[in-house]
């Protein structure tokens, strides 16, 4: 057997290039992280070779006695990582990633064209929470279900729960999604539950971004209030690129007419994952989930998550000190949303200039943006830098680098006008600007 370095030198070079890119730059994309050696070993293990449609003990393929043990371990450890009792909660560790996990929840709990309410994408929700724009239903979650997004308050940047409650009374959703991709405050799950109960809706938590913080107990958990909780395992949780769904088992609840109803979420979710949506589970990823969930119960992991939040808070205060406006005025989690509206600098230009100096982040809409196509903010995250060992004093330096880069962007903008292409040309061709960038690299 030949190693990829021998069998495919062209691809091997690309793998080395990407590794060096990840090492050299500052990775500040809030959804990214550097996973552990143990997780990477599971991902490239022989478990990848095996087909195992079905659940442990009920497979459609032979030869699964070891795979069954791996999947059961992943299930047990996932429940343990969130302090859940196997009597009350079940878990499915087979979703290929976060989007398929969310679709499995919708497929299991809803009928086509049932109504859903999630946080709007420009306000910090995810595509899979029912995103559509004025012209088009964009996400399949808005094509196959009727979606009425809820929003943040334009002044405070905080979720407008009163408006959500008011609209839910009119729209009567069957499912409400409490989850975020770009929102730096904790969620009021109790309030979400009240609104869901008032309308006889399921409450789904999508903790993809924050699942590491929840496991470490550094922010409130969705489990007390939600019927079902989905997550990715590769963001703050620092595991493999995969998805997991937790669901309540045989839970009693009072419906809107005061009747006691029993949930049967377990079979609905399991059947939705397979056979409705997926085929063979990715057993290498399931093994990697098992080892990541084990790591998530350690004191070191808890310290790491505390540091992630401390670093995000430091980033906020350093950037505020340098004159930047932070949406909601701060952060409780691993991310910081910076509005550049006061500098009239677009998020796209900021993202571009930061990439030029090897700081990776996302352009992002901020409350008050007219168009999601031209956002005026950037989203910065601390999970990956914290994995590399960064502490608050390093983050002060990172904020200074960001400020230097954005100051160059503001200067380049004065020479270039509003269009991104003209801006890029100035950055690359103007001698003064390009030498300033070269110095910062
Ligand atoms: N849910 C939330 C809240 C997310 O932020 C994301 C990804 O960013 C997803 C779901 C989808 O995950 P994936 O990209 O793994 O499909």
Automatic annotation (TrEMBL):
Pfam families registered for this protein in UniProt: SHMT
Serine hydroxymethyltransferase-like domain: residues covered: 5-402
Biological process per Gene Ontology, one example term: glycine biosynthetic process from serine
Keyword Flavoprotein: no
Pathway(s) the chain acts in: One-carbon metabolism; tetrahydrofolate interconversion
Modified residues (N6-(pyridoxal phosphate)lysine): 235
Classification lineage: Eukaryota, Metazoa, Ecdysozoa, Arthropoda, Hexapoda
Reaction(s) catalysed (UniProt annotation): (6R)-5,10-methylene-5,6,7,8-tetrahydrofolate + glycine + H2O = (6S)-5,6,7,8-tetrahydrofolate + L-serine
Keyword set includes Cytoplasm: no
Stated family: Belongs to the SHMT family.
Native organism: Nesidiocoris tenuis
Name by which UniProt lists this protein: Serine hydroxymethyltransferase
A single Gene Ontology CC term: mitochondrion
EC numbers, comma separated: 2.1.2.1
Keywords carried by this UniProt record: One-carbon metabolism, Pyridoxal phosphate, Transferase
Cofactor(s) demanded: pyridoxal 5'-phosphate
PANTHER family listed in its UniProt record: SERINE HYDROXYMETHYLTRANSFERASE (PTHR11680), SERINE HYDROXYMETHYLTRANSFERASE, CYTOSOLIC (PTHR11680:SF59)
InterPro entries: PyrdxlP-dep_Trfase, PyrdxlP-dep_Trfase_major, PyrdxlP-dep_Trfase_small, Ser_HO-MeTrfase, Ser_HO-MeTrfase-like, Ser_HO-MeTrfase_PLP_BS, SHMT-like_dom
Biological role: Interconversion of serine and glycine.
HAMAP family hit by this protein: SHMT
Top-level lineage group: Eukaryota
Single GO MF descriptor: pyridoxal phosphate binding
PROSITE patterns, A to Z: SHMT (PS00096)
């Amino acid at each position: 057997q030949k190693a990829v370095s021998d069998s495919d030198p062209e691809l091997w070079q690309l793998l080395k290039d990407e590794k060096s890119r990840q090492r050299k730059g500052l990775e500040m994309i809030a959804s990214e992280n550097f996973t552990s050696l143990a997780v990477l070993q599971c991902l490239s293990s022989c478990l990848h070779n095996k087909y195992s449609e079905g659940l442990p003990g009920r497979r459609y393929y032979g030869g699964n006695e070891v795979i069954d043990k791996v999947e059961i371990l992943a299930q047990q450890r996932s429940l343990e990582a969130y302090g859940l009792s196997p009597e009350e909660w079940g878990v499915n560790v087979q979703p290929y990633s976060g989007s398929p996990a969310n679709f499995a929840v919708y497929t299991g709990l809803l009928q086509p064209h049932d109504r859903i309410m999630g946080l709007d994408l420009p306000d910090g929700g995810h595509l899979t929470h029912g995103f559509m724009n004025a012209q088009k239903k964009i996400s399949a979650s808005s094509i196959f279900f009727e979606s009425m997004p809820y929003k943040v308050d334009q002044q405070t940047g905080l979720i407008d729960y009163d408006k959500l409650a008011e609209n839910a009374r009119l729209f009567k959703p069957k499912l409400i999604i409490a989850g975020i991709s770009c929102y730096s405050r904790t969620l009021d799950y109790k309030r979400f539950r009240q609104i869901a109960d008032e309308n006889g809706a399921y409450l789904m938590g999508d903790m993809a971004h924050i699942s590491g913080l929840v496991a470490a107990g550094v922010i409130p958990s969705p489990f007390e209030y939600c019927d079902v909780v989905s997550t990715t395992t590769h963001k703050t949780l620092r595991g493999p690129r995969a998805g997991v769904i937790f669901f309540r088992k045989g839970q009693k609840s009072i419906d809107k007419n005061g009747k006691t109803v029993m949930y049967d979420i377990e079979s609905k979710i399991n059947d939705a994952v397979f056979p409705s949506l997926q085929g063979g589970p990715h057993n290498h990823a399931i093994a990697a989930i098992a080892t990541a969930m084990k790591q998530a119960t350690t004191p070191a992991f808890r310290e790491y998550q505390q540091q992630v939040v401390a670093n995000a808070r430091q980033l906020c205060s350093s950037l505020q000190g340098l004159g930047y406006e932070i949406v909601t005025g701060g952060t409780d989690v691993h991310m910081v949303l910076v509005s550049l509206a006061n500098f009239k600098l677009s998020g796209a230009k900021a993202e571009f200039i930061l990439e030029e100096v090897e700081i990776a982040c996302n352009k992002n809409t901020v409350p008050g943006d007219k168009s999601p196509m031209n956002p005026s903010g950037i989203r910065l995250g601390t999970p990956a830098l914290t994995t590399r060992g960064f502490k608050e004093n390093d983050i002060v330096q990172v904020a200074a680098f960001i400020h230097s880069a954005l100051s160059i962007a503001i200067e380049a903008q004065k020479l270039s006008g509003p269009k991104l292409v003209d801006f890029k040309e100035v950055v690359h061709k103007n001698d003064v600007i390009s030498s300033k960038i070269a110095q910062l690299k």
